[in-house]
């Protein structure tokens, strides 16, 4: 009976609006639809509708533009007065955007408005323009991360591991070069082999990295400088690795394990809540599932509801609060704020739709246009445009992987040590060349370059390859 009455009122109102529009169109010499400006209600929620320099932008604003282009519509957008999506009270009255459409204060509701059975009875809903589910977000450091196979790599970030590998390669090559250059390390390049072949240098550096002290031991100051710096580097590195590894393990054991809604319902260490008067709240309220009922009763008892997605995200960032919301919005929050994580379980799949008054002739055209935009990939493009964000870390990184800048000092010292080693080796060679030049009555430069070429010319000669045997003997 009520529905019939609402339908009748809706049709009369639409008719009246079309008559007025028709009158205007005759006067202006335009078509009926051009003359009618639709009032679109929306709600502030990132990235659907956002305020920028007193104008509105976002996914929903772009979508409205596309729909208006397709259907040749004129429209004005306003924000919903009470700041709600729409829920029916005990007297049957609707609040939020649904309320505005029902009371004809708006012709369209364009927002992340979830399709529900109750709303479908009160307004016309188009085909969904986006699919989502219900999920949970909370601070990463509250929940324990699952252990994976390469857990031992976690104490250092990827960049740090790459830095260590480069440092190892560079030090080994430097050892090899310096041991060749230095006359104190290799006094007779013409007659004897060099103990520090490239392979030996790699072996020596790897031995130090694991605190094993692999030979051969260097004699020259230049090679010793590099060795000492490398030892210092490895000691700091191992100490940082062990400290970071144990702090990661210790902090993990004190954390909660929340992978599902059941895990959340069964604990009472952290508070949780959803948006007041939202479809997510109604989902828990109307559910007969024991876990979801527990969650609803807990939220009612503890008054832990929030008034917007932004407030929920802010509370979750503060810690000790899990925000239950729609996965699409939660994924954006996780992409924006590195301190947050979304638990794997997603329930209650649903879609977002545009709402119009009951009996509105617009709904069919809007549905067709939405489907056309989906099929042409336009909606996917909009999604990528508004969800393409990077997370800005505000964490102190207390027990996260160590980044290269945390160990920057020791990398810097190593680089300085390597440079000093090479310099010393060149000085040693220069001193030797000077003495030889005086003895041979030749120019110092020519003796220096002869020495250099002699030391690198026969790097792959048989003499070098025989060295391991010689040094063993
Ligand atoms: N999209 C929801 C609604 O239409 C609001 C957000 C939520 O439920 O988390 O009510």
From TrEMBL:
All copies of domain Ionotropic glutamate receptor L-glutamate and glycine-binding, residue ranges: 47-103
InterPro entries tied to this protein: Glu/Gly-bd (IPR019594), Iono_Glu_rcpt_met (IPR001508), Ionotropic_Glu_rcpt (IPR015683), Iontro_rcpt_C (IPR001320)
Function of the protein: Receptor for glutamate that functions as a ligand-gated ion channel in the central nervous system and plays an important role in excitatory synaptic transmission. L-glutamate acts as an excitatory neurotransmitter at many synapses in the central nervous system.
Keyword list, A-Z: Cell membrane, Glycoprotein, Ion channel, Ion transport, Ligand-gated ion channel, Membrane, Postsynaptic cell membrane, Receptor, Signal, Synapse, Transmembrane, Transmembrane helix, Transport
Domain Ionotropic glutamate receptor C-terminal per the UniProt entry, residue ranges: 37-389
Subcellular compartments: Cell membrane; Postsynaptic cell membrane
Residue stretches spanning the membrane: 161-181, 221-243, 352-373, 410-431
Name of the protein this chain belongs to: Glutamate receptor
Pfam families for the chain: Lig_chan, Lig_chan-Glu_bd
Signal peptide bounds: 1-21
Membrane topology: Multi-pass membrane protein
Residue ranges the record marks as coiled coil: none
């Amino acid at each position: 009976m009520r529905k019939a009455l609402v339908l009748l009122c809706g049709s009369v109102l639409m008719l009246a609006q079309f008559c007025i529009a028709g009158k205007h169109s005759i006067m202006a010499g335009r078509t009926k639809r051009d003359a009618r400006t639709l009032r679109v209600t929306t709600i502030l929620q990132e990235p659907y509708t956002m305020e920028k320099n007193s104008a509105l932008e976002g996914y929903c604003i772009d979508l409205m533009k596309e729909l208006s282009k397709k259907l040749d519509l004129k429209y004005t957008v306003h924000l919903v007065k009470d700041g709600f999506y729409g829920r029916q009270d005990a007297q049957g009255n609707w609040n939020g955007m649904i309320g505005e459409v029902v009371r004809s204060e708006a012709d369209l509701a364009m927002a992340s408005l979830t399709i529900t059975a109750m709303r479908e009875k009160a307004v016309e809903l188009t085909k969904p323009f986006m699919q989502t589910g219900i999920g949970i977000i909370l601070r990463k450091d509250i929940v324990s991360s699952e252990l994976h196979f390469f857990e031992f790599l976690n104490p250092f970030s990827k960049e740090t591991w790459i830095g260590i590998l480069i440092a190892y390669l560079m030090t080994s090559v430097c050892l090899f070069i310096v041991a060749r250059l230095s006359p104190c390390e290799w006094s007779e390049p013409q007659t004897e082999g060099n103990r520090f072949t490239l392979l030996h240098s790699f072996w020596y550096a790897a031995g130090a990295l694991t605190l094993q002290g692999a030979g051969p031991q260097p004699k020259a100051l230049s090679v010793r400088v590099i060795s000492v710096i490398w030892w210092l580097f490895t000691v700091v590195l191992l100490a940082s690795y062990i400290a970071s590894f144990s702090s990661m393990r210790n902090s993990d054991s004190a954390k909660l394990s929340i992978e599902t809604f059941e895990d959340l319902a069964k604990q009472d260490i952290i508070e949780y809540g959803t948006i007041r008067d939202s479809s997510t709240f109604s989902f828990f309220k109307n559910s007969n599932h024991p876990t979801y009922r527990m969650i609803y009763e807990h939220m009612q008892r503890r008054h832990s509801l929030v008034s917007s997605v932004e407030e929920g995200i802010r509370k979750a960032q503060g810690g000790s609060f899990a925000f239950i919301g729609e996965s699409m919005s939660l994924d954006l929050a996780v992409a924006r704020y590195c301190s947050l994580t979304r638990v794997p379980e997603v329930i209650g799949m649903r879609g977002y739709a545009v709402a119009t008054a009951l009996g509105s002739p617009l709904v069919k055209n809007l549905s067709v246009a939405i489907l056309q935009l989906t099929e042409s990939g336009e909606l996917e493009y909009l999604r990528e445009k508004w969800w393409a964000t990077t997370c800005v870390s505000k964490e102190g990184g207390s027990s996260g992987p160590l980044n290269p800048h945390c160990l920057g000092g020791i990398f810097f010292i190593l680089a300085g040590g390597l440079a000093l080693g090479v310099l010393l080796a060149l000085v040693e060679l220069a001193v030797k060349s000077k003495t030889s030049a005086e003895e041979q009555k030749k120019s110092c430069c020519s003796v220096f370059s002869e020495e250099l070429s002699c030391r690198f010319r026969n790097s792959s000669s048989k003499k070098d390859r025989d060295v391991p045997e010689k040094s063993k003997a």
